[in-house]
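Structure ticket #2291
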Amino acid sequence: MSLLFHSLSSLAASAIISGWTVIKNINDPHLKEIANFAVAEHYKQSGEKLKLQSIIKGETRDVVGSNYSLLLKASVGPDVKYYEAVVNEKLSLHQRNLISFKVVH
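Resolution: structure written out below.
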């Protein structure tokens, strides 16, 4: 029992340290806007035209604005890959910035 408690305590501590919170409703329309923004910005920066298939999971944390870390399923033609996108959003300024966008293996 104490091993289980220790594991759960370690998991909770790492969540507190990282500050990331799991997004429970990955079907939220606002989250879909952020995912589409990430795919569009990736296209502007790389020329790779992806089609967003779905949001697999997401996390958020409050910093200067809100950061969203999303695991996305996207395709180019028949090729489907998974990507991690990090977007910073400042709602009060109506600003979004793509921080990173990379293939996840």
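Closing remark: The first helix runs from residue 2 to 18.
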